[in-house]
Amino acid sequence: MNDVATLAARSTGNETQQPAQTVLTVTRVRRGGRYEQVFIPVKNEPGEMMRIDKGRLRIDHEYQRRLDTMRVAGYAANWSWVSCGTLLVAQRSDDATYFWVIDGQHRLEAARMVDSIRELPCIVFKLDVHKDEAIGFLAANTHRKLPSLADQFRALIIAEQPEAQLAGRLAAQLGRRISQPAGPTTISCAAELLRLIQGDRRSVEEAWDALGELCHGQQITARMMRGVIGLQRRMTRKENFSSSRWSGRLVHVGYDAVRDEIVRLGQINRAWGERVCAEGVLRAMNKGLRQPLVVNLDRRFLSAAG
Predict the structure, then answer these.
(1) Grouped pLDDT means (10 residues each) for the chain, 306 residues
(2) CB 41 within 8 A of CB 136
């Protein structure tokens, strides 16, 4: 692709070259069975790295997304130069005083709240017209994909994040690893596992072996994990999956029966939250029992502190 698109105009019989104009090129690519748009400005020149006083940085709200004040406050309270990286800014041909933020408005607003920050690292693109910035905003924001928690997991382990380390040990305990895609030797629902560990670590550890036996040779889905551990959180200290009685009953009922009951209740409730999934596990276990397991699903007996 040419860096600069040149338009020619004829005037009084002579050919006169005009300044390059930005043209919005929309490229359609297929991802996951559907088409996405990738916006590429024809004017595609490298920018210049600069440190710019934050007072000279401006935001054009005509094309920028709505500012998320909670996100700004979070950035300011936990400022990190590594996560800040560099802002993408434009220098307009008719304005040598200010620079206009294409990508990074939340980081700029956060920096304004931190008195010790004077300058921000920026990559400056010299753009001719206002339209260039809007196309730059599309190009910078529409083709990015944030890494999933499963993708982030190895970095969390290296960073010694306690919940991630425990999740890794629990996966290894079942002969699995935190990875994608989902399968009989992996656990892909890392976000759900970390959420459950943060909510009630003891319940996760106490129900883990029963969950592993139930799902042996099968996928450990987020719903199955939510259901078994969610039920453990609602069982009493005497009646839970730490005992061979109820862990054995769960395994005896089997993966398919538990999965089907969770799906059925979820379809009825149009939701698959922890309580609904826990009730699905409970109903599957109680089928055919003369003395069913009685659990108050609205009460959680175990706490994160344990």
Answers:
(1) 33 42 54 60 78 95 86 94 94 86 94 97 84 75 65 77 92 94 93 92 96 97 97 92 95 97 96 95 96 90 45
(2) yes
186, 289 Cβ separation under 8 angstroms: no
CA distance 220 to 229: 12
* Cβ atoms within 10 Å of 250's Cβ, excluding its own: 22
Provide the token pair at 21.
Answer: 């104009």
- What pLDDT, on the 0 to 100 scale, is given for residue 262? 97
Instruction: State which H helix or E strand residue 56 sits in.
Output: none
**Does residue 239 sit in the same domain as residue 156?**
yes
CA torsion, ordered 254, 261, 242, 220, to nearest 10 deg: 70
**Distance (Å, rounded) from C-alpha 107 to C-alpha 172?**
38
Residues 176, 277, single domain; the answer is yes
Say how far apart CA 175 and CA 28 lie, in whole Å.
41
Q: Look at strands 24-31 and 34-41 and give their pairing.
A: antiparallel
- What is the predicted pLDDT for the residue at 84? 95
Residue 298 within a domain? no
- What is the distance of C-alpha 226 from the center of its chain? 19
Residue 297 structure tokens: 């699903």
Tokens of 292: 């069913």
Rounded distance between C-alpha atoms, residue 79 and residue 114, angstroms:
8
Q: Are residues 196 and 114 in the same domain?
A: no
Whether residue 101 contacts residue 89, with contact meaning beta carbons closer than 8 Å, is answered with yes
6 in Cβ contact with 20 (< 8 Å): yes
Could you tell me the pTM of the whole model? 0.64
Nearest Cα residue to 57 out of 86, 93, 100, 90: 100
Question: How far apart, in whole angstroms, are the C-alpha atoms of residue 112 and residue 119?
Answer: 10
pLDDT at 8: 31
Domain extent at residue 76? 48-141
Rounded Cα distance between 121 and 84, Å, is 9
Paired sense of beta strands 48-53 and 34-41, if any = unpaired
